[in-house]
Sequence to fold (491 residues):
Amino acid sequence: MMNTGYDIEINGLGVRHNNSWVLRGFDLKVLPGEKVALSGPSGSGKSTVLKCVMGLVEPQEGSISVQGRALNAHSIWSLRHQLAYVAQEPDLGTGTPRQALESAFAYKANVGLRDNLKKLPVLAERFKLSESLLDKESVSLSGGEKQRFALVAALLLERPIILLDEVSSALDKVNKQVVVDFIQEAVDTTVVSVAHDPDWLSFAERVVHLDIKANIPEVSDE
Amino acid sequence: MNEVVDIGFWSLTAAYLMLIVPLSILFYMRVPIIKETCWSLLRMTLQLLFVGFYLQVVFRLNNLWLNMGWLLAMVGVADVSILRGCHFDLRRFAMAMFVALFAGTLIPLLAFTGVLIDRPNLLDAQYVIPLAGMVLGNCLRADIIGLKNFYEGIKKSEKAYNQSLAQGASLREALHPYFRDALHAALLPTVASMATIGLVSLPGMMTGVILGGADPLTAIKYQIAIMIAIYTGTALTVFLAIRLTTNNSFTHYGLLDHAIFKGRAKISG
Fold:
């Protein structure tokens, strides 16, 4: 595929789950450095879009390309190195947040980024995560703390494209603003975010609305 | 040392009479397992009678191919019972499990009969059949623990697993923590039984060798060797079982294919 200049290009995306379409005929083009928000009622497939780009859901229809490379079973493994993803309710796994953050740098693909871990204290402070939280058991953290740690994990990897799924859902107003400011400062980073909260939408340069009815044709062609 | 004393037909019948004791207790206490007990006793008797007669033939002929056939049949039965016990899709895992069980049983077994007791016939029925049964039985138990732990572990923390893929892990890197934990869980019972052996109870093999008229010192040497064979076999079989089944249970994107869980097929979204 030719490099079209888009960081993410989605054409006619369709995902079926339990015999019904969660998403269908969805298109999206995101320029490098652009901040895009996906909004829409729950069940409109916003999260599914991000998971498809991340290769965590395999679509039945349509195509996705990331930085001009078509996403498929072969390319996904290297495309993931261009992407960072923060899940809606992140699971930091067993152990402490510090272990969770460090584990990602043990992967062969990220070994060269190990020095980024030095930025951890600064980032943690920025997101109002105290040093002591780093060595607590992850399971004992609040939803908001987990979300901010997951965000820190994503930022430490310094990927050019960041996908955020309802990252604001467990954050209070102050913390939300911290995250919004941070994203706005990251001029070169492409951000696609799922949100239905007006504070959160404020950072977006463009809001793409997903609708349940608009996406799924009444008549199934199966 | 004395040769083992055979039990006569009427003596064995007398042994059945001893069952009056437990059955009376069950009846007196109204414990509702009398029917099950009788059914299990019947099954035990018939199965063992069959195996006894069959083994008599196998031992008399002591034919390499017949012994090998017996080994393959035992592995086959173990294979099916593991996959049934774990509710996994038989067709997908059967071949991988067969290889894992066969290698886990045969390799320590050949070391036992070939090197340790130096039999000219590597598959001598007198040694191969009881030893294979012990190693295989342990492999079976270890594989059930290992496979269940591995796949259920990933399913339970699928979000964290997917997140490791999202962070750029290769399939092997993403699976590693679950693989490690599954191996740990599967080997733990054997490690624990090695540590308490001889203190809590006399192991079956030692009892057998002693009953067979051997010196207790010979018996413990056999017991040590079989424990090492079992540990080697279980480590090998669990490693192979997980390693070989992963080829077939993750999508090309590295996602867990839920279709491996029989009857619970579901696509996560």
In short: The radius of gyration of chain A is 18 Å. The domain at 8-215 of chain A is CATH 3.40.50.300 (Rossmann fold). The longest helix of chain A spans residues 143-156. Chain A has one domain: 8-215.
